[in-house]
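Our working data are protein records whose layout never changes between entries. Getting from the letters to the tokens is the skill we practise here. To make this concrete, we reproduce a full record directly below:
***
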Amino acid sequence: MENKDKLQKRKLGRKLEVSALGLGCMGMTFSYPPFPDKHEMVALIREAVDRSVTFFDTAEVYGPFSNEELVGEALEPFRAQAVIATKFAFEFDASGKQIGLNSRPEHIKKAAEGSLKRLRVDAIDLYYQHRVDPKVPIEEVAGAVKDLVQQGKVKHFGLSEAGVNTIRRAHAVLPVTAVQSEYSLWWRSPETELLPALEELGIGFVPFSPLGKAFSQARSTKRHSSKPMIFATSSRALPPNREKRIVRWSIFSPRSLDTKARRLRRSRLGGFSRRSRGLFRSQAPNDPNAFVRTWGRPKSNSLPTICGESTMPPQRYRSKEHAIRKNSKP
């Protein structure tokens, strides 16, 4: 692949460099049945590597365990190129059923051993606490991960869906490299307290669900129509929340974006942000999902975006995404 086609990089914390766009692998084996063929998903992950994606997100609870196994198999030939993030925090019974949270230090270390084996790695690049366990002080959690770092089994520590106070307390024990939380055009709450705190502490932010938990896909394309939309199971899909989001999303409908593109061409791209100008210069001026992905890759050098995918995109969508990647600024 030529240099100009490569994704730009983002730095999480002090040292961890990842691609600006990451691949969330959860839906390949978890949450969105029926699940695709395993060999197709291995091919999809490897195609992402070929397209300069270096950041891959999984968790032991996805499956459980099968998602880590899939990611480990797919990325084994590309270990030097890939940064794999996985997560702990849940406990399972003998049948694999999730039975609650467990972030006790001894359980964290046991979970790490399982993840290392399934991912086929010697060290976990980024190890998140998936959900805060109210029964275990965060200082004990950070201390357990610190032991794993000292043993060479974990490289970086992360938190998912954690509050600012929890992040500060954990960071005092072991530097937190990244915090993962939902962030999109439909969910902007991190802007109030979380993002300013992370900037102050030098912690990277990893947004997930940049397409509004499939809300934008449900409104704008049928290529995922065989799968249930996670947005439909959310309280945001119920009145009056759904109506508010539909009104907001109508701004980014294909017809609306196409109109904006024509106006931009007439006005020589004046009055719009650089990212918007880059989008409308592309070959896909009426692709709302592409618009949202572009919005979700802002100028901050510590904010990559995790997009989930479990379907091989048709060539026409791949070419559009490449056009946006080449023409838009982060």
About this structure: The domain at 3-210+296-327 is CATH 3.20.20.100 (TIM Barrel).
